[in-house]
Amino acid sequence: MSNILRVENLSVALDGETILKNVNFEIEKGENLAVIGPNGSGKTVLLKTLLGIFPHEGKIIRAERTKLGYVPQKIDADRHLPIDLENLINAKAAVLGLKKSDVKEATDAVKITDKVLKTPIGHLSGGQFQRALIAFAVLGKPDIILLDEPTASIDQLGEEQIYELIHELQEKYGITIILVSHDLSIVYKYATKVLCLNKTGVCFGPPEIALTPEIFKKLYGQEHKYVHHLHHDH
Question: Which residues contact residue 115 at a Cβ distance below 8 angstroms, ignoring those fewer than 6 apart?
C-alpha cells in the first residue's frame, strides 16, 4: 500500500446524530493534510475517530505498524496541581516503556528548556503548554501526528513559532501531519492536501486547486473572508 492512511466512506453517528457521512481521503508518508470547515462540521470528531475513540462505519486503513500521536486543541491544567512538566512527560514515557534518552530527544526536538521542564504545569504559558503537548505527541516516534487547532489559545507570534516547529519536526522525522486549522495562510504555506469538511467531504486535493470560491460558498454558506487573502502568509 503506497498510502500511509486511507479513509473510505467514513461515517460517524453519535447519540443518533450523523456527525460525518461518507468521508473519503488518502495521504502518503510525509504529507501534510489540512482539515478545514465551519464549526460543527466534524473536524475534531474525525481526528478522534482516526484515533479509535468513536465507533464508525466505513474503512480506516493504515500502513502496517503505523503509530499515531495526538495534540488536542486545549487542555485546562489545574494551576495548583503539584507536578511539573518533567513529571508529566516522564509518566507518559514510563507507560510507553521509553528510556531517558527518548524523553530528552523529544523535549529537545520541541525546544523545551530545563527551566520549563521544572515549571509546574499550571504555570506554563500558552505557548509553553502547546510545546509540551507536542512533546507528548512526539514521544514514541509516531508516524502520523494529528493536531486539532494547536494554536487556538496563543498569540500570533507564538502561533507562527508553533507552526514552524511542527514543520521542522515533519522535515526532521518524516512525520505525516493531519492538521485541523482555521488559518488558511497556514494551509497554503504547509499543506500538500486539504480536506474540506461539512459533515461530508466537500473537497479534497492540493489547496491551490481544491479551494475555489465555489467550494468556500458550499462550505461556509457565503464567500469566506479569507478568499481574497489566500496567498499571503501571516
Answer: none
Domains of the chain: 3-229 (3.40.50.300)
Question: Cα separations (Å) of 174 from 4, 87, 141, 147, 168?
Answer: 12, 28, 10, 16, 10
Give the C-alpha separation, 62 to 164, whole Å: 27
pLDDT, tens digit, 9 for 90 and up, residues 139-161: 999 999 999 999 887 888 888 89
Helix (H, G, I), strand (E, B) or coil at 1: coil
Interatomic CA distance for residues 177 and 106, integer angstroms: 17
- In tens, the pLDDT along 67-98 reads 999 998 866 655 567 788 899 899 999 999 99
Angle between helices 156-173 and 100-109 (to 10 degrees): 130
Neighbours of 11 (CB within 10 A): 16
Location of C-alpha cell 507552526 = 163
How many whole angstroms separate alpha carbon 182 and alpha carbon 217? 15
The answer to whether the beta carbons of residues 144 and 175 sit under 8 Å apart is: yes
pTM attached to this predicted model = 0.89
The secondary element (H helix, E strand) that includes residue 115 is helix 114-117
Sheet holding 144-148, edge to edge: 68-71, 144-148, 176-180, 32-36, 193-198, 200-205
Distances (CA, A) of 39 to 45, 198, 207, 220: 12, 9, 20, 10
